[in-house]
Amino acid sequence: METIGRNDACWCGSGKKYKKCHCQFDEKLKELQQEGHIIPSHDMIKTPEQIEKIKESGKINIAVLDYVAEHIKAGVTTQQIDDWVYEQTTSRGAIPAPLNYEGFPKSVCTSVNDQVCHGIPSEDVVLQEGDIINVDVSTIYHGYFSDSSRMFCIGEVSKEKKKLVDVTKECVEIGLKNVKPWGLLGDMGHAVHMHAVENGYTVVKEIGGHGVGLQFHEDPYVSYVSEPGTGMVMAPGMMFTIEPMVNMGTDEFYVDEVDEWQIYTDDGQPSAQWEVQVLVTEDGYELIAY
Ligand code: MF3
Ligand code: CO
């Protein structure tokens, strides 16, 4: 940590004196670090101004997903969902973050049944009664990023698939309950993992959540297969996603060799994912996007 005088301006940009701003915060982090914990760097701590701007981005992300929720049904192609997302995002003055991100060709990820994530919208994928689909929306608004996803059941789905979708949502809710200032990310991830395991499911290890707000993907990496007592300290002002990928069968997966994006379960069994964007606050958390 840099040396900063008690009467100097705080590193957070508030304009307040350090001793009246993040001084105690830094002391608390230092103590936790001395106890052996991993602590966030200052650039992971969002300022109140940044938080306000990220919230505006989050509101658009929520509205786009609400639009999808109202219109998705059997017979719709995933390309149509992509068109909705592009239109609903750009008409609000925002940009779909996935479009051209590391070469991703579309505005949204649409992952159906055994697709774990990064499904590419296509005219050829027509939603059928009984399908489950994750629609993962990410928005850039005035340079600030938001990211959340929801599952949709198309018509009547099997009770096994319905349960997978419901338990995965519960996993995220349990994760949220475990977002506590000065708590550990590893405890949060462990609670998520346990709920999936208790229901007979597996959680993908290699792909997880991430810091978000000033960039699409920031540190830290957020795992949902973690050991209690480990992981980075959650400090007020940190912002990250909770987005476990929960599989009915094996947690093993493969990447489409041709497009190098789309990810599928090895055993062809279904996978579900819900994603929220959360801010750590002084007394808990605040939802930024869902
Ligand atoms: N939205 C995904 C996430 O939750 C990232 C997708 S990257 C993309 O992190 F390029 F496929 F959009
Ligand atoms: Co994400």
TrEMBL record:
- CDD domains xrefs: MetAP1
**Single GO molecular function:** initiator methionyl aminopeptidase activity
Annotated Peptidase M24 domain ranges read 52-282
As its record notes, the protein acts as a catalyst of: Release of N-terminal amino acids, preferentially methionine, from peptides and arylamides
A Gene Ontology biological process annotation?
A: proteolysis
Which cofactor is recorded for it?
Co(2+); Zn(2+); Mn(2+); Fe(2+)
Similarity comment text for this entry: Belongs to the peptidase M24A family. Methionine aminopeptidase type 1 subfamily.
Q: What is the protein's name according to its record?
A: Methionine aminopeptidase
Q: Which organism is it from?
A: Anaerostipes hadrus
What's the gene? map_1
